[in-house]
Amino acid sequence: MSRTALVTGGTRGIGAAISMALKDAGYNVAANYASNDEAATKFTSDTGIAAYKWSVADYDGCAQGIASVEADLGPIEVLVNNAGITRDAMFHRMTREQWQAVIDTNLGGVFNMTHPIWPGMRARKFGRVINISSINGQKGQAGQSNYSAAKAGDLGITKALAQEGARVGITVNAICPGYIGTEMVLAIDEKVLNERIIPQIPVGRLGEPAEIARCVDRKSTRLNSSHVVISYAVFCLKKKNQQT
Ligand code: CAA
Prior knowledge:
Helices cover about 50% and strands about 15% of the residues. It has eleven helices and six strands. The longest helix has 29 residues, at about 95-125. Bound molecules: acetoacetyl-coenzyme A.
């Protein structure tokens, strides 16, 4: 029987590519989303993957959402914590709300989603948790003290949970994408993107969601639990005409 995978933020951008890659790999996939009903409806009609609406920043909402996915598709054995937001501002202009919103979603969301699913994974002695961090959690990014802090935190929880899960058949890994051509990245001011960000990418282009989704296939989910998968997409993307 197919395993069930849940992808948060799974109807757009990198998350949508991951949902589709997991479906292609034979999983029963559920895609969570927080707000964009129109995109979610289109995603479901295009892919046949069911979409479920709740905010990963809301612990009780996560518990209820997870229960409804499990009622429909069975126990969640693969969890991809992908949902994330940006509220970019230089630190001297950042508001408390901008700080908190990003911490609550991008870091709190990983706790809120993994905590209710973890006991079932432990009981079944099988689980795969993949956290989508970011290169900016490792190198930092001016204008993203909130996002960089949350994404660095995602690596901390990944490494701690990998140690806890190892004894009970659960692996926990992280992927750190670079700048990928999603709505989130394309929302950056064009001048900033073209003059400050793209010139720092050795291959001279943004990555593609499918390049990240490839890491979240059966191979990466089988890695030993103590591994943290770091895909420095900024540094290791191949040129378009290079073979993968
Ligand atoms: N390093 C150091 N200083 C910088 C800087 C940098 N990278 N970028 C800007 N500054 C300086 C500017 O030179 C300027 O200094 P002065 O006032 O002395 O001239 C000051 O900071 C303000 O810069 P801006 O004019 O750009 O400020 P702004 O308020 O108009 O915009 C910002 C600030 C919204 C943060 C904008 O700079 C921005 O969008 N930056 C890009 C942030 C970014 O990379 N976001 C990634 C989003 S995608 C994502 O997060 C996905 C992922 O995982 C990779």
